[in-house]
Amino acid sequence: xxSNEITAIAGASKxxxxxxxxxxxxxxKTCGRGHKGAHSRSxxxxxxxxxxxxxxxxxxxxxxxxxNVNFGRRYEIVNVSDLERRFSxxxxxxxxxxxxxxxxxxxxxxxxILGDGELTKRLVVVAxxxxxxxEQKISGCGGTAKVVA
Length: 149
Description:
This protein is of the alpha/beta class. The chain has helices spanning 57-60, 80-86, 95-101, 132-140; strands at residues 75-79, 92-93, 110-114, 124-127, 129-130, 144-147.
């Protein structure tokens, strides 16, 4: 293959629709927006899940049973491989350090360490929960896994 034979992939890039450029384009006059009404005006957008005044689906369906969404504890997940990549030998890693490293969103987050990946450094890890494999990998390198009270 020569450099002059390389062509763009057909259909990979699509030209933007230029509206309001005359009747011959098929998008002239009303520019595909129809006549009058909120849809035709700028700034209009449909509210999510709005069904035009019809009783919404989530209100039509019966609510049954227990839903854990309000009561369940959510954990932010950090893998052992992330610790290996971001921290140096002998470091004490708490939630604050994970936030500073960009692995966890906020200091109020609950953190669970999972054992995905390899660990070769001796680290002291302080988190809310550990998987069995993560605990084994941390202690296998001479480090310690402490659970936050």
